[in-house]
Amino acid sequence: MSKLAFVGLGVMGFPMAGHLVTKGGHEITVYNRTRAKAEAWVGKYKGRLADTPAKAAEGAEIVFSCVGDDPDLREVTLGANGAFQKIAKGAIFVDHTTASAKVARELAGEAK
Q: Which pTM value belongs to this model?
């Protein structure tokens, strides 16, 4: 069992994070900009809720994201409370956003 974080619980992210619990048995901390969605996810899957992407990422071995677009992805990773503020050295960041190659290269550079 791995300690995971999932940022973005929309149409795709909600069930994806759920599968990591139900099929993988992982411990997950979630964050969503609309808190009610995160609360609904925690109510269904029994994970933990974080107030920011940074708090979700803190201590996680793998951080997943699934948000709307490039600006959203930058916000949840590089923003003042973004996941990259607290992600551990050696942790893995996996993005499922339909984002541009430009932002992927930008985040790869920041992650190094």
A: 0.95
